[in-house]
Structure formats: structure tokens, C-alpha cells
Predict the structure.
Amino acid sequence: MSGMTNQRGYSRRTFLKAAAGATGLMALAACAPVAPGAAPAAEGGAPAAEAVSVLWWRSQSGSIGDLLAKFVVDFNDANPGIVVQDEYQGDYIETMNKVIAAAAANALPDMLLVGDGQYLPLARNGILLNMNDLIDGPNGLDLTEYMEPINRGKLDGNMYQLAYGVSTPIFYYNKELLDAAGLSGAPDTWDIAFNEYFPKLATEDLVSFAYSPGNWWQQSAVWSAGAMVNDENWEIDLANPAVVEWFERMQAARQKGEAHVPTAADGGASAYFGSAKAAMTIESTGLIGSVDEISGGAFTAEVGYLPAGPGGRWVPSGGNGLSIIEGVDEATRDAAWQFIAYMHAPEQYAAYDRLTGYIPIRASVQEALADVLAADPRRQVAIDQFEYSRWHMKIHTVARASQEMKDAWDECITTDVNVAERLQRLQQTCVEIAIEEGFEPTLPS
């Protein structure tokens, strides 16, 4: 099987014992349940089989992390021959960087949960296992039951990450504030947002829009401007005049006090919106499950599609997924896959989507969540918006370029930089990075 050859030459499996030490191994052993009625092996008999250990590095903390930890405990209890040990490593970027450092130190884990935008650099560098044979095997998964995002984990036809948490950015708005301004629902287009909603909603004590910085939902602004919609050939057109215009308009909104970029002290865009200091924001659909808690029920938080532009309506999908490390031994590989299949079972998967507000992409999970979808129509809006979703820009999947995009886009909104000049520098830098990474970019004519 392809997954049994470690093409990168990493040393494997001694690192868990070395890192954990005697105390850690005793604790690990204590977590392994004893089969009911098990007795010590008779003298001269075969020794009891040693449990297979699977070290799982993951992102996601808080209540989501608690749920993932519960999955581990429940799985270990039900599978005495396997001990999954989960370790939180930070956010998606931090986890990816730790995996890269661990690869250099020959100290990789066995399994990962990391962002969908972070797995590709790992797959391209031979760190992740091609899971095609596991998916198609006797204990595999029927991917025809899944929505399109399941295929985002493929590189050159091989599955390196099995999608788990699936989200898109979505437009949140304070219904009472919009009603008071004579506005109904989320703005359908960016022209309407900039020309009508932003001016009408802004007051001395209220900003219209809490701008969440980054490089994820902003891809929608580029696509809806008509740029880089067809980037199968690594199109890079980040300084397109229509893109420049969008960032100039958002920069101007910030300068006029209509938009605000919340700081860490503000708690980020979601907290700023939740405190009713901003009438609207764009955040992940994963916030749907907690937005009422964040607002304390002080107002009605509704959702709508991301605004369209002259290039149409486009919504980037995101989230996270599960991977196995290339080069693990066969027993560890099979144990890790067994845990992944357990995570994808409707009971566990529905519990995860129920808590987070992530979009259920498996038919049986949607059925299991029928009561939740009926009780909270916002979740159905998120599912319906998937009609306009697509995965990241090709250049966005290159870590260095992705960081350059974030830096440039943040600078365009948070400072008074000349947007056209800044995006032209971004364009040049990303073209250079693509070439250095071995890709042949398609440039605007």
C-alpha cells in the first residue's frame, strides 16, 4: 500500500515513548480499559497483546476541544486494543508549523486535525498519507453520501485530508438595528452595502460593520469583483482594478467611521458584534451555534448570504479535516483510520456539527440534525448558501503566499496605505512565490 513507504525518510514511533517518559506512559496505560472478565495470561501462555497507541495532534479548544476529548475517551473505552492520545497544539497555523518542525526533528504524531488551508503544504511535502486505499477498503466510507467539500482534501486525485468541520463565512446582522434604519435583511450586493447600509447604520456610538481581518472571507471580495474566478491554472490577478476598488471602498468606510477593525482587546469581530457595537459583520458559519450566547440574547442575530458583486456571488469554504501521517506502521495506520471512521459516524459527527454550527455535509448527519435545523433557520441559510461555495484560490494554498495576502489585505483596511500600490506589490510577491514553489502562474493579459 502506498501509505507504508515513508518517502521523506522520517524516523518513526520511538518519539512517543521518548517524549512522554515513564510517567506519561503509565498514565497512558491507565487510560486503556481492561476487557470485562479479562484474566492474567496463564503461566507459559501467550502474553496479552499490547494496545496500539495513536498520537493525535489537533486544533480546536474550548467547548469544541472538550467534545473532541470526549470522543477520544469514548472510543478508547469501546476499543480496548487501541489507545488514542489527543494533544491540543494551538490554532490551525500553529498546528501546521508544529508539524513542520516535528518533521524536521523526526518527531511526528500519527494523526492530525488541522485547517483545510493548512493540509496542502504538508501533503505536498510528503508528510501526509494518501488515504484512498483506506476510504475504498473494507472499513471505508461511501463518499457519495457527502456533499462536494469532501473532495477538497484531494491533491492530484489522492485524499490527504478527510473534511470534518465544514464552514463558510456568512453575513451576520443585528435585526433590530437594521429595522430601525429601515433596512431589511443582509445587503444583497456590495454596492448596496457600501452605498446604503454603511451610511444609514453608522452613528456616533455604532459602526455599521465590524471588519474581521484575515485572508479567508476576503477571497469572496476578489471573486465577486470578477477576478481569479477560474484559477485552475494558478491565475494570479490580485491587483485587478475591480479588486483595488473594493479594498479602497472598505478602507474609506473605516476612515469615515462606518467600519471598524476590532482589536484583540475588543475580543475580535464576533465579540464586537455581540456587544451591539457593530450592526453587521462577516464571520464563520461555525459561530451560529454560539452567537446568541455571545450577544447574551440582547438582540436578534440573523444571517444572510455574502454580498454579490459584478463577478457574481462566491463564497469560500473552510474548516478542518482529519489526516494520517505518512510512514506510520500498518497497525497504527489501521487504528488511526478506525478512529477517523468513528468520528465520521452520524452520532459523533452530528454532535460536533450541533455544537459548532458547522455545515453537515453527510446526508445521514443532516437527518440526525433535522430537529436542530428546524429549530434554528440560520443553519439552513448556511446550508443553502453552499450553492455559491468554492474552495480556496490556488495561490492561497501556498503558505507563504497566504501570509502575504493576509498582511497586504489587513494593511489596506487598517491603514491609509495606497491600496493600488500595495496590491501591486502583493501581486508581484505572489507571482514570485508561485514560481519559486514550482508552479507556473497565469497572469492577467
